[in-house]
């Protein structure tokens, strides 16, 4: 019998309904304002000395850890943002993760005028299940 770790999916999907209209929620789904969207973040600040073509923001968490994230895609029409972690303190135990957050307006039913949010994280193959807890803060 092998002592190798069992292969797992490298994708985690979380979702929620936020009881606020899409126009209010989408305003905070920006890397520079993410501390207003994700309560685990103490501060979000633009990293100086980076090209005008690339947005890099440092998120400092309430526990003192920090990550630098790079915006890969952003659409105000389709209400999604994709970003990668490019640096972390302390260092992460996997080599990469790409995140996409997508928002939709809820247009009917009990949650009408709310926002459905889906956060997808795609981890590199060197991550194991324990690392996925990083985004469950």
From TrEMBL:
<dbReference type="InterPro" id="IPR023393">
    <property type="entry name" value="START-like_dom_sf"/>
</dbReference>
<protein>
    <recommendedName>
        <fullName>Bet v1-like protein</fullName>
    </recommendedName>
</protein>
């Amino acid at each position: 019998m092998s002592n190798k770790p069992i292969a797992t999916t490298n994708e985690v999907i979380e979702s929620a309904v936020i009881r606020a209209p899409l126009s209010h929620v989408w305003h905070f789904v920006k890397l520079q304002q993410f501390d207003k969207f994700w309560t685990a973040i103490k501060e979000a600040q633009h990293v100086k000395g980076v090209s005008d073509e690339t947005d890099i923001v440092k998120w400092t968490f309430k526990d003192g850890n920090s990550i630098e994230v790079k915006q890969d895609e952003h659409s105000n029409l389709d209400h999604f943002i994709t970003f990668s972690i490019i640096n972390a303190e302390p260092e992460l135990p996997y080599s990469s993760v790409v995140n996409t957050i997508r928002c939709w307006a809820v247009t009917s039913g009990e949650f009408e005028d709310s926002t459905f949010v889906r956060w997808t994280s795609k981890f590199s193959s060197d991550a194991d299940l324990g690392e996925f807890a990083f985004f469950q803060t």
